[in-house]
Structures are given as C-alpha cells and as structure tokens.
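Internal ticket #5521
Category: modeling
Description: The requester needs a full-assembly model to guide mutagenesis choices. All entity lines are attached below as received. Residue total reported by intake: 748.
Assigned to: D.W.
Attached entities:
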Amino acid sequence: MNRAAAVEFDGTGKIYYLPRLGRPQPLEAVKDVSFGIRRGEILGLLGLNGAGKTTLMKLMAGLLSPTSGSVRVLGSDPRDPESRRRTGFLPELPYFYPRYRPAEALAYYASLSGMDRAAAAPAVSSVMEKVGLAPHAGKRISEFSKGMMQRLGLAQALVHGPDLVILDEPASGLDPIAIHDMRVLITGLREEGRTVVLSSHSISELEKVADRVVMLSRGSVVSCVESGAWRGTEGGLEKLFMEAVR
Amino acid sequence: MKAFFSPALRVASHSLRLHLRDRFFGLFLLFSLLLIYSSLLVGVMAVYQERRALVDFGLALMELMGLAFCVYASATAVSSEVETKTIYLVFSRPVPRHSYLLGKMLAVFGAAAVLLAATALMHSSLLLLRGHAPDGPYFAALAYSWLKLTIISSLVFAVSMFSTSSLSSMVIGFILWMLGHFAPETVLMAAQAAGEGSLLELLARLIPNFQLFNFKDALDVRGAAAPPLAALPYAAAWWAGSYGFAWALLRRKEF
Amino acid sequence: MLSPAKDLAAGLLFFLPALALNPLAAPYRPPLPPVGEIEEVRRGAAEDAAAVSFGARRLFADLWFIRLMQYYGTRESVHDERVREHHAHHHADGSVCHHGAGWEKGLYPEFVPLSFHVLHLDPYFHSAVLYSAASLAYNLDRPAEAREVLELAIERAPREWRYHSLLAAVGYSGETDPAEIVRLLLPVVRQPDCPTMLKNQTAFLSKRAGDYATAAAIYRDMAENAPEKEYAERARRELEKLETEAR
C-alpha cells in the first residue's frame, strides 16, 4: 500500500448478477482495475455510460464489495466504520426529504457520521455557507431548484469534514453558472488538502478541474492521463479520450 | 453497546419525525377524527347502550386506522429510501445495518403509539362529552392493540426486505392480520380435521396469534386476552424474529 | 456470488423462538364462541367474516343489536308471508296482533334468529340478551323462545348470573306468584345496563304483587335515567298515580 495513496485498486473486479428466470445472468461491471489515487489530488473518472464509473465510486464508498481483487481507502477496507467516517459521498441526483429544511437534513447526516449535536451545529452552518445555501436556510427542500439540491448533496458529503470526497456526476443537470460554482467548490476542496474523486460525462469540466483523469471503457481502465498531457495536446482531453476508447 | 444503539436511536428519531410529518399520517388522523365523531350516530341508535357502542366503535376504528398506517409505514420504511437512493447517504456513513434496521422498526412502533394516543385523546373527549368516562380496561385494550400493531409492523417490515413492491408487502400484511385473528379457529380445525389436519396445524404454528391481544373484543370478560407477562414475551419473540430475518436479508444486500 | 436463497433460509431461523411459543399459546381459547357456530342471518356472512378477521366481534354484536332493536321497533311488513299467515287468526286469549311498533305483540319472525346472532358474536352482551329474552317473554308472549335464548346464553357464558335470574323469572311467569318473579328480577334490574323494558316489566309485576314501594323505586329510576322518552314519561305518570293512591 502506497502511503501517499488515498485509494488503491488492486486487480479489482465487480460482477453483478441480474435476476432472470432460471439462473441469474452475470454482468461484469469492472474488470481487473488497478490504479491509485494520490492524497490531495482531484481525480476524474471519464467514460461512456456503463463504463464502470459509478461502480468504482460505490466500491470506494463501501456500498459494494469487490468480487475479486481489493480496494483500500485511506489505508482501510472501505466498509470499515473508520474509513466511512473519513469519506463523503455524493450520489448522482441526490434526494432529500422534501419537508425538511436544509439544516435539519444536514444535522441528521452529520449525526450519522458520528458528530454530536455540539459539533454538528457549527459544522452545518459552515458547510451551508461554503456551498452557498445559507441564504436559503429558511426554505423547505421541496422549494429547492436542481442546483440547490446538488449543493445540498455536496454539503451532506462535506459536513463531517471528510478526507476523501467522492462525487458522482456533481454537475448533472446544472446550469452554466451553477456548474462554475461547483467547479470553484471542488478546487477549493483540494486547497483544503482533501482528495476528490469525481465522475463526469462532460470532458470540458474534467479538463478544467482534474489533476488526473482515468478513462474507462467496458469496465476496464484504458488510459490514465495527467493534466499536463491534455493541456499540451491539440484537441485536449477529448482527443485523448476518443483515441483511448476506440 | 453504544455503537449499536446510538446510530439506531438517531435513525429512529429521524424516521419518527418523517412518519409524523408524512401526509398519510395526517390523513389517517383526520379520517379517524371524522369517523370517531360520526360514531355519535351509532351511539344514538344504540339508545341505552351508547357507552358500549361508542367504546367498541372507537377502539375498533383506532386499531383499524393504526393497522392501515403501520402496514403502509413498515412496507415503505426501507424501500422508499432504496428507491430514492437516500440509502446511499446512510450506508456510505459509519452506520451498521443492524442499527439502521432497529432504528427503522422503532420509528414505526413509535409512530403507531403516537397515532393511537392522538386518536385515543379524540375518542376520550367524545366519551366525556357524552357523559361517559374511559376506564382501566379501555386503556388496557389500547395497550394490547398497540402490541398487535407492533407485531404486524415488524412482520411487514421483514416481508418488505424481499418483496418486489411495497403494495405486495401491504397486501401480505393485511392477509397476515386476518389469518392471525383466525389462529384459535385454525388450531381447533386442525384438531378436528382428519387428513388435512397436519397442514392446518402447520399453518397455525406459522402465524402469530392475534387473539392473545384482542382485549377489546371482550372488555368485561376475565381471560379475554393473555396476561401481560405472557403477551409481552410473545410479542417480543415476533419482533426479534422479524428483525433477525430483515437483518439476514439486508446485511449483504448491495445497492 | 451472494446467495439470496441462503440469506432467506438463515433469516427464517430467527423466527424459531416465536414459532416455538405458538404451541404454548395454542391452548389459549378466547372466551367468545368459535367462529363455526355463528349462523348466518340476513346474508350477513361477509360481515361476520369481517368481524372475526379484524377482531371486532363486539362491535358487530353492537351493530346487530341495533338492527334487532330497529327491527322490533318498526311495523311488521305485511308483505312477509309468515306475518300475513300469523295475522290471519286470533290468539287463544282473545288478543289481537297489532301491526305496529312500540313493543306490541306481533310475529317478528326474525326476532329469535337476530337474537341468536348477537349471542353467537358476543354472549357477554348482557343488555342484548336480557332485552331479547324479556321482549320474548313479556311483550311477545313467547316464554319458550325466551328460555331458548337464555339457555344458549348460559351455555356460552355460564357465570353470568343475570341470565340465570331472568331464566328463573321467565320460568315463574306462568305461575300466579308475581312476588317471586320480582324477587328474582330485582338484582338484574339494579344493574346500570339493565334494559328499560325489563325494569318496566318488573315494576308492573311489583304492583301486581302489591309491593308499591318497590314499584315506585323502579319507576323513579326510570323517570330519571331511562334514555327512551316514552318509558320515562310512562314512569312519571305511573309514579304520579302511585303517589296519588298512597295519599
């Protein structure tokens, strides 16, 4: 295990078994994936639909167990409580109870991360300020726009001060201004020393924010490029991606 | 111990608040209020048996509303979080699955208690308005009704872990409720039947006996329900069984 | 590969303690009669099934009792063949059946089946049993059927002393000693859930026995507490008569 690694995949594979009449049908979502994520970097996962991005994220978040190989997060099994305490996860299109106000929802998730009330209250206020939800504190979640919902999703991933932040399609469904704000937030996390892993369909977004991009195709890693590579290439990350997946 | 109960209580507290704020909870409460006060008509028709009619109608109605709510809440407690993917936000945190399940179950039990207490308050006010006072057996009947509701809630909760839809969990819940009230008859028929007796006996062994808790059906009769020292362990065994079953199915489930 | 079937099987094991307790609970019999003995009345099988399925037999007994009171409290339908046949001839004592309501004589062919139905659902419904038996014995002049109702009630609820008392009183109703009937009925009449009609009958028998003090006490109770206006007014009139005669 590389001490500088926040996450390490070592020969990791994941097979889903789809229920069918008779025998379940296996679906290999991730095949023999091996790479590491350095502490303090922003790593992008890029791939077409079904490439395995979400599966890798769920493996890191401890929501799935690998069928083969191993996953280590911050030196531990991602299913360990300690590992989860130090990880924050934003799923794609997060949902919150509509009748809650944002602070109530955040206080609940903070408590589930092990924070007591005394520690949670200032953390909730602080994270709401950080993601720009403070002016909307009095609204119910049912009144939130899509952008505000994504901000709330990011807030719940950050409220307990995690070392590793996993964001699945954080810019999904956002308008350009909201996308810009999200980008600023993400780069801010790196400046705080946190490790960020994010997935996106948007090549341009990853270009602007990631230090490194891992490209996936049909469950396998097809390429891993540093930011310098696409900045120095005509056509940028898109050209590198098209070459890698074809 | 703290690592087990602390997250469970947090989940329970949050889930209880969700249940109490749920529009269906409010609808059940409102519907109960309307029906309880409409029972005045039944009381009037019963002439000098007004107290008995009001008490019987009220207790039956409160239990029925409680049943409808508990079956709905238990069937959707976990499934709604799976469908909305809110469960990712929980299980990506250091919340053991057994604590999560316990919290969810306790929340439904708590919501059932709140619903019964609220409807009992309404009903008691009606009784007092008509010059009748609720007494010890009345409150004992409510307590036994609550125990019945917790058993059916825990069973529906368990069923929801493998059921394909919330609706089918609810339907199974109502069927179990009805079968459970026929438990003594099933035992009797098993004893009397020849060839099919073993099947009936098996059925009688597999369903909870709700008549043990049916205190409201024989309010003035000694031996109407099992004594508390027998009823409580019996209820607890079904809670534990349902909880264990739910945990066995959830512990390795992936989302 | 995960095995949901194995998890399901493992999960079922957790029910073993609960299933083990079930045979211990099997000897527990609720005090109400078995479901199989509830005979259908007025196509009410679905209601009876609902009553048992939802553990609401007492409530349905109340509803059937209300139906009984409404049935007896309304005019007999001359479209009922049984009623027409009955009204075609006079009674041996020279009385004539009235069609009307108001606790008069009549056939009321469904009275006994309705009474039995209430009994089968809840034999501890004292008022209903006393009301049925007393109506049959003293208003409808059918003591044999009154005895049938009471005997069934005693079979179901043998410790209910009110039923024994009224059965004894009905047994004496053919005799010429009303004082004995009053003696048997007084403890029943003193209960708060005693049907007013039975109180009225006991007061009447007390007067026949010459015990005007007892009659007055019962009429006073009726005047103050009877929910039926007609009975309350009747009791006031009788009380006035007794007080006038006493002066």
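Resolution: model delivered.
Comment from assignee: The CA atoms of residues 40 and 229 of chain B lie 36 Å apart.
Ticket closed.
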